Predict the 3D structure of the following.
Amino acid sequence: GFGFASKRTILYSNMISGYVKKCDLDSVCDVILQSLKRDGEDSSFSEETYCELVKVFIESQSIKSLAALIIEAHKLESSSTECDKSVGFGIVNACEKLGFSGKSILDEVDAQGGFGGVGVYVPILMAYCKENRTAEATQLVKEISSGSEVKLDVETYKALIEASMTKQDFESALTLFRDMRGMRVTDLKGSYLTIMTGLLENQRPELMAAFVEEVLEDPRVEVKSHDWNSIIHALCKAKRVEDGKRIFRRMVFLQYEANQQTYLSLINGYMSCDKYFEVVVLWKEFKDKKAKLDHALADAFLNALVRGGFFGTAMQVIEKCQEMKIFVDRWRYKAAFMETQKNLRLPKLRKKKMRKIEFLDAFKNWVGLTTGKSLKETNTRNFSSDVSCTFMASFGLKKI
């Protein structure tokens, strides 16, 4: 029973403690191996016991004997033995606790041509994480993966990836994730989100884009519109709107649904770079897709179009809002119009530009800035504070 097994473990631990005090290392090894020969019994020892025996082995400079103990113990351990219950884990973990290099023990195990199970690696990897030695941890994982007998558990991978992202060692995090995929780990979603979130927080959209492309067809990872939106937002925020536009095109090509956040990021990005005509193009695509317009999107489109001087397109947005019964604050756009029209005047216009003036006149009527005068009466008048900078520039306008 459970109680009997626990009592036997205590007995073994006491025996180990007695032999340690006598520096009888051979007897220590015999007790540990004997405990493993009893099938079905709980032979795991406490961290205190392992620290006690490891200390005497190290002080006696018996690293080879310690490595040999790990190898022999692993041969006797059941295949179902949990990683942190193995003798190899207990010994190497104690080494790290005592400030002795667990890697030295691992190297000696390798030198003897033996194998200590996955448990010998975990304490070393966790120690690397704690010391922010993520590159060394990643290198060790690659060495582990090259061997057919060892497979790290998901939690170890997650801890290593989190440590790498915390240190901003993105290369290690991505390498570890690739290793997870290669080892056929089924639970990838958590680590995928950890990497995406870290890259977004550290404003690395180019790495995010490459990462998404890399895992796009992996069924264990669910790439969603939100992921593409995060990349587009980060690029537009950094005024890399052409890259943002390219990612948007890729997103649409792969048939991910663009939503409010997608369009808001692009509009704000275009405005930050004074690329107002791109907003016109975006509105046409939005309209052709018959995407759902809401108040936030209508506001963003109108604000950009009014400031850019594209009043014909602005009137299309207004008509759509009226059709969908979306409230539009005329005073807001009147203020935006007036704000962008200071110290500008309109020279004599040629007939081919009359259509644009009609759009302008329609918009001014809508916000209450005109009294319905004919275009002939107004097309040569001074329109101080009437037309936006972009609209004026298209007519060769100059400041007063």
